Amino acid sequence: MTPHAARRVRVAILTIVMFGVVAVFLSPLAQMALTSLKSERQISQAYAPLLPSDPRAFTYQGRRYDVYLVPVGGEVRELALVEKGRTESGFVDPDRPQDGVITWQGSWRALRPSWTLAPQWSNYADVWNLIDFPRLLFNTAAIALIGTLGTVLSCTLVGYGFARFRFPGRGPLFTLLIATIFLPTTVTLIPTYTVFARIGWVGTWLPLLVPAFFANAYSVFLLRQYFMTIPREMDEAAAIDGAGPLRTLLSVIVPQAWPAISAVTLFNFVYTWNDYFTPLVYLSGRPDLQPLQVGLAAFNGLYTHNPAYIQAGTMMTIAVPVLLFACFQRAFMRGVMSTGVDK
Amino acid sequence: MTAVRMPRRVPMSRAARRETRHGFLFILPWIIGFIAFTALPMAATFVFTFLNISLAEAEPLRFVGLDNYRRLLGDDQAWAALGVTARFALMWLPVVVALPFLLALAVNSRGVRGGGLLRVLLFMPYVVPFVAGALIWQNMLAADGWINSALRLLGVAHPPSWLNDPAWVTPGLVLIGLWGLGAGLIVNLAGLRAIPAQLYDAALIDGAGWWRRLRHVTIPMMSPVLFYTIILAVVEVMQYFLVPLVLFDGNGDPGGATRFFNLYLYQTFFTFQEMSYGSTLAWLLFVITLAVTLLLFRLSRRWVHYTSER
Amino acid sequence: MNGTLPRLLAALTALVLLTACTTGAGGDAAPVQLRWYCCLGTGEQADQVKAQQAVVDEFNARHRDIKVKLDVVPYNSARDTLATQIASGKGPDIVGPVGVGGAAAFHGQWLDLGPFIKARGFDLRPYSEGAADLYRIGSVQEGLPFAIYPSTLYYKADLFEEAGLAEPPHKYGEKYRWPDGREAEWNYETLRELALRLTVDKNGKDATQQGFDAGNIVQYGFEPARDDLRYQGSAFGPASLDAGDGKTVKIPEPWADAWRFFYDGMWKDRFIMTGPVFETDRFNGDGAAFFSGHVAMSVNFLWSTYGVAGAGPDWDVAAMPSHDGRTTSPTSADTFRILAGSKHPDKAFEFLSHLVGPASNKLLEAYGAMPARTADQDAFFTKLAAQFTNTVDWQVAKDSVRFADTPHSEAHTPKYNQTLAVLGTYRSRWMTKGGLDMDAELTRLRAEIQKIWDR
C-alpha cells in the first residue's frame, strides 16, 4: 500500500470509530424519539419491540382481543386470545371466526403477540394544544434572546476591563468575581426574591432579564481567559493608529476572540433556553409568561405523569437550539478562519 | 491574576489614571450587578445564620448567636451529604475534564472526516432540557433498559441496577452527566482553534511527533482553557443536585446515596423550611468551594501558561 | 473616543434600570386582590385548571369588591415555591386543594377558621359524621369539609378469572372463598396467599409453583400504598409515630407489621415489585403500578380513578383486608385553607365558603373527589361511573368511609418534614436492598427520628 492509501484507510477507520462512538452517545435521543411516539399502553407493554407497536387486535362478539402467534400442529398460526387460562386457553382464528373457540394447551404468556406498527403521531399535536406551545415557544425565545444579548454585551465589556487594564484592586476584584461562581444559588434566592417581590417584579420577566445585563462570572471568566491569549502587540498597534479602548475592543479584540464570544453566546442562549428553576420561581401563576421548560413540567406531575408527552414536547423544544447550533457552528468556524490566527 | 501593587503615596501618572478610569468603567456593569444581586443578598443570608428564621415550627424572631453553627458541627446528615458530594466529585472530575478535551482533539484532527457533523451531534444532548434528559436516562438505566440489554448482549449476566443500588447510582449519575459534555467540547474546540498554526509548523520542522506536539504545544497552549474547565467542573460538582432532585423527588434515594450536600441544603431551605440553618449550610458550601478553588488557583501558577500575562 | 465610552456605558446602565423600574411599578385600585394557590395536591391537570378558572371567573363577575387570581404551580414544585413565597412575605391568601399532609407540612402557617365558622354560622351538620375531624390539624382548629378519598382494594377481575380464583369480597365482614370451598377471613394473610398465586412469570408459572422464575416476573399479585410508609402502615391499623407526649417516638405495632409485610413481599415472597422493577415504565405507566395492568390487587385512594382506566376494562374495587381483626381504610381529606399571613382574611373566607359551598360540586367533579357533604355523594358516583365502560361497585367506597383512620396517617408530628424525609430514606432503602434485618431496621429508624425530635 502506498503511504497515501494507508493514510486514507486510517482516516476511514478513525472516522467510522468516531461516528460509532457518537451513535452510542446519541442512543438516548433515539429512545426519546421512540418514547415520544408511544401510547401509555405501548410503554407499559411487556417484551414489546423497540418501535411503537400494538398487538394486532381482532374483534370477536363485540370485544377486542389480542392476536398471538400460536404453534398448532407444527405450524405457527395467528390466533386471537379470547379466554385466558393458566394451563389452557381459548383462541379464535380471525380468518374463520365461525369455527368457534379453539382450545390450546399451554401457557399463553409464553406466546409472542403479533405486532403491528402503530406510532402515535398525535402525541405531538396533543402537546402542541395542551400547553399552548406557540405562546410558550415565543416566551422562551424572547427570554433567551434578550437575556443572551445582555449577557454577551456586558460580559465582553467586563472581560475586556479585567484583561487589558491595570487599575488598583484589579486582582482582588477578579478574585471576588470568581468567588461569586461558587455561591450556591439557593443562598441568594430568598433575599433576592423578597426584594423583587417588594418592587413588583415577581410575575414579570424582569427578574430573568435584568441581571443578565450586569455580567455573570462564568462568561466574564471565559472571555477574560481568551482575551489574555491574544497578543498585546495587536492592541498596541491599534493604539498607535489612534484607537481608543472601545474601538480597540471592537476592531481588535472582538474579531480575535470570536470563537470565545460565540461560545459564550451559545452557552448563555442554551442555558436560558433550558432554565427551569428561575422562571418557575418568578413566573409561577403566570402561564401566559412562562417558558417551555416550565410548561413541559406539567406532564411530569403527580397526576399527569406522561413520559410520551414529555418526550414529544422535548423533541419540539430541542429542535430550535439544535438547528441554531447547526447554523451557528459554521459562523463559529468562519470566525476562527477570519481572525488571522491560523495564518 | 497578579494584583498590581501601587505604592500608595506616589501620585499616578496621567496615563495610569486614565487606564484606571477606563478599567473601572468597563467593569462597572459587573460591580453594580455584584452589589445588587450578590453582595447584598449574601450579606442578608449571612445575617440569617445568626437568627432563628424557620417557617415550620416558627418561633418569634431572635438572635441565636452561634447556635446554627453548633448544630452544624453535630449534624451527621450534613457531613454524610458532604461525603456523597466528595465521592461523586472524585469520579466525575477526571472524566469531565479529560473526555471533552480528548473528543475535541479527535474532532479537530485531520485524521477524522466530518468534523462539523460530529460537532453538531456531540453537542446535541447538551441542549436537551435536563428534566427530559434525566427522565430518558432513567429509562436507559432501568433494570431492563437499553444499557442493561446491551450489557447482557456483551455477556454480563447480571448487569447492575443502576439507579436503585446505592453502590451503582454514582456511576449512573456520571453517565447521565456525560451527556452534557457538549459544552466542554465547544470550549476545548475553541481553544484548539486559537492555537497559532505556526507553533505546530515550527514543531514539525523540529521533527516532533504526535505525542511531542501534544505534550509541548497543545497542552501548554490549552492550559488556560483546561484550567477554566477544571474550575467550572469543581463549581458544578459542589452545587450538583438538580438531576437527583428530579429523579428521586429530592429524597436522596436510594437510601440516601444521592443526598448531595446541595440537595440537603435545598431540602433544609424548602422542604424543612429552616431558612436560618439552610443559610448556615449555604455558607459552609460557599466557604469550602472557595477554599478548593483558591488552592487550584495557587497550583495553577505552576502549569497554566498565559501568552500575554503581564 | 474617550468621551464616548463612559457616556455609552452610563446610558446603557440607565436604560436598563429605567425600563426595569417603569415596567415594575404598578398599583392596585379598589377591589381587594386575593390569590388562590394551587396545587399542593390535585388540580394541575389541564381540564382541572379550566374548571378552577371558571369558578374564579364566575366569582369575580359577581363580586365587585373582590378579585381572585388563580396561581397554578405544578405539584412537583408547589411546596418549594409556596415556601419561597411565604418566606419573602408574599404568600397567597387561599391554598388548596390541600390534604392533611400538605397542611401539616406548613404547620403553623394557617389561619384558624374556628372563629369565622362561628361568626358566620357555617353549618357543619350536612357532612358525614366525623368528616369535620379530618380537617382539624394540630394547633389550628378548624377547616371546612370539602373532599374525601377513602381507600379501597383495586383489583383486576380478568386476572382472577385467568387464575381460576374467586374475586375478593365487596362487603366488609364477608369472608373469602377459595376454589376448594374453604372460607377464610378477609385479612392480609389471605391476601398474601392470593397474591402469591397471582404473581406470574413469563412462562405462566405462579409464585407457588416449582420452577417459578423470579427474575422474569410479568405480573405482580399485590401493590401496597408505596409512596408513603405512614399510609402503608395505617392500612394495617391507624396510629402515630408520636407516643403521645409529643416528644417520644414509637414505631406502632400495626405499622411495623405492615412494613415487614411490604419488605418480605418484595424480597422473599416476590409478589410485590422491588424498587428497580417499580421504577420501570412498563410497571409504572401513569404514576401508579396498578395502572400498568400488570398488577392483580392494589390498595389506593379513591383519587386513583384519574388513571385507573389504564389498567384495562376489567378492574373493580373490593373491601380493605383486615389486620389483627381490625379493618382500616386510610382516608385522605382535601380542603382549601387560608394562610395566616393573608391581609384580607374576611374576604378570603368569603371566597372559601364559595369554593366549598356553591362551587363545590363543579370542583369535586373535576378532582374526582367524593363530596364530604353526604347529600351530594350519590350524584357524584353517578357521574364518576359514567367515565368508565366497566361496572364498578362504588358502594364499597361509600362503605369504606366508616373505617377511616383516626389518628390520621398524615397528622402533624414534631419536626414533621424532617421526619417525613427520614421515612422516605428508609422506604427507598427497603425498596432497593434485599436481605435486611427488619428488626434492626426498625430500631435504627426509631433512633434516627428520635434524634431529630430531640434537637
UniProtKB/TrEMBL annotation, chain A:
Record localization: Cell membrane
GO biological process: transmembrane transport
Transmembrane segments: 12-34, 136-162, 174-196, 208-227, 248-271, 308-328
Domain ABC transmembrane type-1: 137-328
Annotated PROSITE patterns: ABC_TM1
SUPFAM superfamilies recorded: MetI-like
Membrane topology, as annotated: Multi-pass membrane protein
Family matches, as InterPro entries: MetI-like, MetI-like_sf
One GO CC annotation: plasma membrane
Domain of life of the source: Bacteria
Keywords: Cell membrane, Membrane, Transmembrane, Transmembrane helix, Transport
Keyword Secreted: no
Annotated family: Belongs to the binding-protein-dependent transport system permease family.
PANTHER family: ABC TRANSPORTER PERMEASE PROTEIN MG189-RELATED-RELATED, ABC TRANSPORTER PERMEASE PROTEIN YESQ-RELATED
Name of the protein described by the UniProt record: Carbohydrate ABC transporter permease
UniProtKB/TrEMBL annotation, chain B:
Family note: Belongs to the binding-protein-dependent transport system permease family.
Subcellular location: Cell membrane
Protein name: Sugar ABC transporter permease
GO process terms (BP): transmembrane transport
InterPro entries in the cross-refs: ABC_transporter_permease (IPR051393), MetI-like (IPR000515), MetI-like_sf (IPR035906)
Keyword entries, A-Z: Cell membrane, Membrane, Transmembrane, Transmembrane helix, Transport
Coiled-coil portions: none
Organism: Spongiactinospora gelatinilytica
Automatic annotation (TrEMBL), chain C:
Transmembrane segments: none
Gene Ontology CC annotations of this record: cell envelope
InterPro entries: Bact_solute-bd_prot1 (IPR050490), SBP (IPR006059)
Signal peptide (UniProt feature, chain positions): 1-25
Localization, UniProt: Cell envelope
Main location: other
Pfam family, one: SBP_bac_8
Protein name per the record: Sugar ABC transporter substrate-binding protein
Lineage, highest ranks first: Bacteria, Bacillati, Actinomycetota, Actinomycetes, Streptosporangiales
